[in-house]
């Protein structure tokens, strides 16, 4: 028996899981030469549309094609229904938490979360204290990273609430599969996801400032040199709204305006893909050329909506992650539907001691880290790497958390040697506005290196289409 859960095969004898039977029968009919040609066609098409991602530190260059695998990750309807329920619950609690800490702070007064974990957090923004945002929604778009481990249980690995990316790859992967293998969709009832841009636009329009009946929505990008610029341009185009940079916007009469060839146009909702620090040089980093001077003052007055809100990062920080189940109990009086991965907070003496004693078996992450950087994967590290990390932990224990090394589930994947299992995760996208909505699916990321557990695109991972089967 494999040590990890296999999404397609039930056991080492190769028994197919029921929801993969139709696909496996189709796959058995395909000639390997035909599949190779289809893979080459996909690469060429992705290169033409510019679907690339920056891989930092890669000597071969800063931009690379995101590898796309043609074997989909398939999830049956009943499993998805439970996942969706858990995601809605979690994101609702996270939004309530962010509103609370910038207002009455009931959760701190109740002693559920130590105050220093919030107010000394680098992502906490005192400028947001007391600001009322539209519909009390802070994380309008959340990308929640889900992994499957053990006997097939789902766990939340991370909550991405600042500027979660990857939804364009989810949509492009589906378009590519439908283009390459239309016959597959005739044989499967795959739930559609192509309405996501419409759902996103409706969601953004629903949280416009009060009194605005026909809101103008824009997507704000740091510019073409940002690693996710393709996604910014893609979403603006798909929603039919303007893609703007900070220099295209200005503040006047306590409102935000966009420069157009027809003159200034009032902007009501900004889907911003620019980090907090760079949004307003008058309020945050004075050296930022990416932001809009005076934006925070308009925001404070409730005359523009920012999605996601300033200060959401405090809720997706890895030092806050261990408390999310407690948030769900505190705000919703419910038990969490989705479990966290067991987590050791290295700022606690006994948990630091446990981590130091078990480094070869643990994954250790920086609390403010992202993208797979600044972490130790114990089982995949050399003795020297472990000892170097030990010194970093001893020097600044409060900067790290540790987790057991999960045997992430694997899905058959086309690699150079043929079809082989590779570890995967899933990032569904949850939209919060007047209601909580999501499309059935998400971005499945795959670690293409044999044995690797790091699926991040920035670390060389690839993507798969995610199929949610309809009953």
From TrEMBL:
Pfam families in the record: CP_ATPgrasp_2 (PF14403)
InterPro entries reported for this sequence: ATP-dep_Glu-Cys_Ligase-2, CP_ATPgrasp_2, UCP005522
Domain Circularly permuted ATP-grasp type: 72-447
Source organism, top-level taxon: Bacteria
Official protein name in the record: Putative circularly permuted ATP-grasp superfamily protein
């Amino acid at each position: 028996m494999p040590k990890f859960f296999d999404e397609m095969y039930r056991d080492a004898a190769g028994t197919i899981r029921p929801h993969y039977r139709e696909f496996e029968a189709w796959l058995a009919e395909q000639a390997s030469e035909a599949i190779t040609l289809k893979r080459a066609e996909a690469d060429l098409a992705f290169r033409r549309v510019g679907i690339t991602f920056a891989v930092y530190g890669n000597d071969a260059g800063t931009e690379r094609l995101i590898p796309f695998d043609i074997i989909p990750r398939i999830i049956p309807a009943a499993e998805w229904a439970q996942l969706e329920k858990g995601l809605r619950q979690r994101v609702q609690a996270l939004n309530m938490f962010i509103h609370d800490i910038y207002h009455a702070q009931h959760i701190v007064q109740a002693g559920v979360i130590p105050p220093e974990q919030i107010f000394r957090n680098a992502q906490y923004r005192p400028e947001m204290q007391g600001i009322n945002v539209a519909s009390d929604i802070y994380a309008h778009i959340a990308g929640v990273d889900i992994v499957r481990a053990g006997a097939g249980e789902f766990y939340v690995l991370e909550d991405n609430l600042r500027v979660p990316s990857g939804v364009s790859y989810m949509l492009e992967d589906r378009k590519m599969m439908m283009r390459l293998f239309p016959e597959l969709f005739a044989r499967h009832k795959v739930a559609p996801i192509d309405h996501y841009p419409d759902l996103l636009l409706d969601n953004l329009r629903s949280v416009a400032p009060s009194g605005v009946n026909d809101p103008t929505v824009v997507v704000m990008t740091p510019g073409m040199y940002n690693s996710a610029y393709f996604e910014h341009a893609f979403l603006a185009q798909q929603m039919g709204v303007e893609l703007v940079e900070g220099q295209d916007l200005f503040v006047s009469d306590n409102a935000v305006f966009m420069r157009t060839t027809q003159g200034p146009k009032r902007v009501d909702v900004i889907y911003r893909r620019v980090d907090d620090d760079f949004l307003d040089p008058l309020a945050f980093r004075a050296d930022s050329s990416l932001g809009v001077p005076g934006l925070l003052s308009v925001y404070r007055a409730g005359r523009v909506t920012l999605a996601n809100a300033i200060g959401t990062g405090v809720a997706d920080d890895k030092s806050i992650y261990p408390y999310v189940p407690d948030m769900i109990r505190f705000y919703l009086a419910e038990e969490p539907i989705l479990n966290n991965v067991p987590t050791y907070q290295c700022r606690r003496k006994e948990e630091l001691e446990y981590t130091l004693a078990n480094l070869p078996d643990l994954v250790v992450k920086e609390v403010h880290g992202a993208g797979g950087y600044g972490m130790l994967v114990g089982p995949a590290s050399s003795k020297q790497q472990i000892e170097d990390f030990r010194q970093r932990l001893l020097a600044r224990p409060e900067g790290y958390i540790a987790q057991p090394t999960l045997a992430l589930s694997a899905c058959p994947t086309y690699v150079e040697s043929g079809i082989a299992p590779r570890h995967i995760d899933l990032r569904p996208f949850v939209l919060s506005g007047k209601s909580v909505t999501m499309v059935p699916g998400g971005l499945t990321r795959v670690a293409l290196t044999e044995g690797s557990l790091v699926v991040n695109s920035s670390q060389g991972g690839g993507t798969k289409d995610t199929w949610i089967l309809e009953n």
